[in-house]
Amino acid sequence: SNTLYAGAVSGGLWKTTNGAQSWFKINDHNESLIISCITQAYDGTLYFGTGEGFANVMASNAGGTGFVGQGIFKSTDATGTEFVHLSNTSPSSDIAWEYVYKIAAHPNGDIYAATQRGFRKSSDGGKTWINPLTDINIENFSNAYKNLEANDVDIHKDGKVIALVVGNRVLISKDGGQTYKTSSTGGNMLPTSGISRIELDIAPSNPNYIYACAAKTNGSLHNIYRTKNAGDTWEVVGPGGSDSFNPLGLQGRYDNVIRIHPTNENKVYVGGVNMWVWEENGNWEVASSGYLSSTSSSYIHSDHHDYVFNHDNPKIMYFATSGGISKSVDGGKSFETVNRNF
Predict the structure, then answer these.
(1) pLDDT, greater one: 32 or 318
(2) Is the dihedral of CA 212, 267, 244, 289 positive or negative?
(3) Which residues are paired to 227 by β-bridges?
(4) Quick check: helix, strand or coil at residue 137?
(5) Eight-class DSSP state of 289
(6) Helix or strand or coil: residue 251?
(7) Are 123 and 132 in contact (CB under 8 A)?
(8) According to the model, what pLDDT value does residue 78 have?
(9) What are phi and psi of 145, to 5 degrees?
(10) Which of these, 119, 85, 124, lies nearest to 102 by C-alpha position?
(11) Which of 145, 144, 150, 149 is nearest to 163 (CA)?
(12) At CB < 8 A and 24+ separation, what contacts does 105-110 make?
């Protein structure tokens, strides 16, 4: 659990073997150093996706900072230091691979990728890919949506519950991907319009609990939602529209992360500009700030992109931001920046 990988959209792949006390670069000669996502399959194989599509929304003044990637790379050795490019994920073969937003591993060996042109799934270690939604009839979900931008995919460790975001609409499967039901039907469900990005997380401790953080088209928080029955019904647990509670600022398309505590499905962490924490029967509380001195124990650099829990000890957390990596050893009460050699 002291070994971690970190990817940067302008800096390639990095690794630590000492719990982020120091980092070293894996390979600066890859065909693409624009790393957008990383996952580890159940057999230990590492996959990373490339291409930065979210940053293009930040192009108001200085021009877009995002760049097209080269698809997906896969580790070929037990130490995770040698990688090969999966040539059939080159944008020249399928424009979907220009931006890979998320990769997720199923316990049966399948690999899912969320791309700018819908989902892709491989059952042979990345040799061939299909759109897993193509031949599935989904009620209240047009076939035209199936090839829209897909930005998130989450798979519970039991393999049965899969949550997808495509065209800013949420699909949930309870049978390992054989069938899907849309949760984006308006009303008391999830919104169908006026959204720029939705991020999901499935509770490790209870796959029926799924949280969603939805950003409006202007980047501010729409709402934070929760379902207790794997998408059949949803409730708002974090209402948007308030100046006093807007963890995304106006950047919810660019930085938007939501993570559930590994052993408590009623505790959730949300980040954008800063990190906020909520637990059942409590209030949303801000846990970090990027506006403090970098020496403050409450400081995490602004613009949050991912949170990771230590598998052996959930009090140890890591935070990926636009300023690098931060770490907490007390469950997110205090933090230190851990960018040595990063």
Answers:
(1) 318
(2) negative
(3) 210
(4) coil
(5) B
(6) coil
(7) no
(8) 82
(9) -75, -25
(10) 119
(11) 150
(12) 105/39, 105/40, 105/41, 105/42, 105/47, 105/155, 106/155, 106/159, 106/162, 106/176, 106/177, 107/42, 107/155, 107/157, 107/158, 107/159, 108/159, 108/176, 109/41, 109/42, 109/43, 110/177
Q: Which position has the token pair 């700030």?
A: 289
Angle, alpha carbons 25-26-29 (nearest 5°): 100
Identity of the amino acid at 285 = E
Residue indicated by tokens 């073997």: 17
Alpha-carbon distances, residue 112 vs 24, 45, 216, 284 (angstroms): 28, 14, 26, 33
pLDDT higher than threshold 70 for residue 62? no
User: Residue 28 above 60 pLDDT?
Assistant: yes
Tokens of 65: 């900072």
C-alpha 70/C-alpha 219 separation (Å) is 27
Cα–Cα distance for residue pair 197/89, rounded to 1 Å? 24
Average pLDDT, the chain: 94
| Contact criterion met (CB below 8 Å) for 10 and 32 | no
Model confidence band, residue 64 (pLDDT cutoffs 50, 70, 90):
low
The two structure tokens encoding residue 240: 């948007």
Phi-psi region of 198 (alpha: psi -120 to 50; beta: other; left: phi over 0): beta
* Sole residue written with tokens 């791309």: 115
- Structure token digits, residue 201: 């997380």
CA distance to 110, 262, 316, per residue, from 311 (Å): 22, 8, 9
Q: What is the pTM of this model?
A: 0.96
The Cα 8–Cα 35 span in angstroms is: 5
Enumerate residues 6+ apart whose C-beta is below 8 A from 284: 238, 245, 276, 277, 278
Across the range 197-209, mean pLDDT stands at 98
Strand 285-286 relative to strand 275-279, pairing: antiparallel
Tokens at 125, concatenated: 């270690």
What residue type is assigned to position 158 of the chain? Answer: D
The position carrying tokens 């065909």 is: 31
Q: Locate 163 and state its tokens.
A: 């949550």
